[in-house]
């Protein structure tokens, strides 16, 4: 049966004080708090010494901390703490489960001498080779990891959330009103606050005040340069260097602002962009690094990184036109309603840890259970629904005229949560057209089994280790996919995940075949008085958190049907019940033991009552006196036309 591989505890290690209020430290703090909220003990430890250009104190601090951890401890090392100490990381990597958290590569910091950049690049590449896996905060940084020779299968992306800032004060924007400009970032050449100061110096005829919120001493020389520049340009009474603000001070700064500016030359994500939008602020930012994508949304105006004149023009346009500023503020308010929350980011982080650094005593799905259930799965398939699938695939596969000399490509089929590949092994011989399969799962060992078993079937097969989260689902499905399939999966998924599946299928204009989804009913023979109570308790447990938000359980198929229909799909449902006879005692026993675990978790106060029921039923299974019917549903959805979606 399924068993969670979520970690029980995790230690985050960062340089310096973990309570610093820069973006990277806030990310760690929010993720740790979110993990604690879902039952995972997450703690944070700070290291002493200088980073990333480390000194002896930094080396000793990291080595001492890791050396004192118990074998098997799950450790998330912030890239700033890890990247320049590869030998220490490697020395403990075999004993601990170490995952790197990389916001952006150390060598990408602005203004580094070439020799320093090369040193940091080499050290970080060596450290990344030693860890169990890498979590990045953006697809941009994940792609950058390829330059450090990190295989894609060892990388997960968990983008930040943004539900910590309340909406800014929505005062009317009128001509002549002094507007408050806010920039939140520690003062550094990469954040380029000097360019914002320079741009504002050319707009002194307009009514504005500016607050630079962020540490002035992380790069003390640059901080002093900004102070000097502000004074030299005569802006001391209009630009405030507020220093690093605590959470309350930061929230107040967002509420008092009218415009948010992030002039960074490069960002690995740019978390403050989300926070500013969560506060309903219109934003001016660059296209530097990940901002090229994370900043491309309504309510944000972008300019080429480093172009001070363009920054000045953007500011001038909004400062001079209250109507336009009001319009983009409304866009920002609309966007604030749709930003992802930190709770979702924490769940994704948990899943990333589970796949990159699993504990020794658990896997996401036990391969013995998957092997045991495969014959029952194949026998249960609804033949009438499958006939519709076969007819549709024949229509989709366009056989070219032999005289043309062209060869039609195989039908690309993507299987979600593939496990050991049972679904593909059933469908390959059943479908009447050439096929190319892509198998997606977060469990590398199960995918290896699937690939090995599929080698005998004479079809092209690709396997990809990935996290099938709602946020990443569409991007994980190959562009040319014509059919998306899954078996015994969607009852574990949340409403948001099912919405994402429908959107992803529609975006690819692909058919959808989802089979063997538990529908909330089972029946045992001979019958007993507590059968219905056990079924209701199992169904209640089905709705609990299963790794992708509150699971839809038996409601999943109906909910997905509605979502697909909303995208113009023609959706068919059909029953596919398991009928387990007394001649299948091993599968019956495994099924009953899975139910038993669920019932004990759901109603711990009724353990004695439940134990009596399970003792009787397990005895009946062993004695081959039990029959079980478990109802499932199969779903097939056709896009209305090739142009749909």
What would a concise description of this structure say?
42% of the residues lie in helices and 19% in strands.
Structural commentary:
By secondary structure, this protein is of the alpha/beta class. The protein folds into 3 domains: 9-160 and 342-356, 3-Layer(aba) Sandwich (Rossmann fold), CATH 3.40.50; 179-336, Glycogen Phosphorylase B (Rossmann fold, 3-Layer(aba) Sandwich); 367-519 and 549-577 and 631-638, Rossmann fold (3-Layer(aba) Sandwich). Helix content is 42%, strand content 19%. The protein is built from 24 helices and 20 strands. Strands 13, 14, 15, 16, 17, 18, 19 and 20 form an 8-stranded mixed β-sheet that branches. α5 links the parallel β4 (97-102) and β5 (133-136). α1 crosses α14 (342-356), α7 (193-201) crosses α12 and α20 runs parallel beside α22. It is globular.
Question: What are the salient characteristics of this protein?
Answer:
single chain; 645 residues; alpha/beta; Rossmann fold; eight-stranded mixed beta sheet; 20 strands
SSE arrangement:
Blueprint: E1 9-15, H1 23-37, E2 41-47, H2 56-67, E3 74-78, H3 79-82, H4 86-93, E4 97-102, H5 114-130, E5 133-136, H6 139-144, E6 155-157, E7 179-184, H7 193-201, E8 208-213, H8 220-232, E9 239-243, H9 247-256, E10 259-262, H10 271-278, E11 283-286, H11 291-294, E12 300-303, H12 308-320, H13 322-336, H14 342-356, H15 367-380, H16 383-396, E13 411-416, H17 422-430, E14 435-441, H18 444-454, E15 461-465, H19 473-476, E16 483-487, H20 495-508, E17 511-525, H21 531-542, H22 556-566, E18 570-575, E19 578-580, H23 585-602, H24 607-622, E20 627-638
Parallel strand pairs: 1-2, 1-3, 3-4, 4-5, 5-6, 7-8, 7-10, 8-9, 10-11, 11-12, 13-14, 13-16, 14-15, 16-17
Antiparallel strand pairs: 17-20, 18-20, 19-20
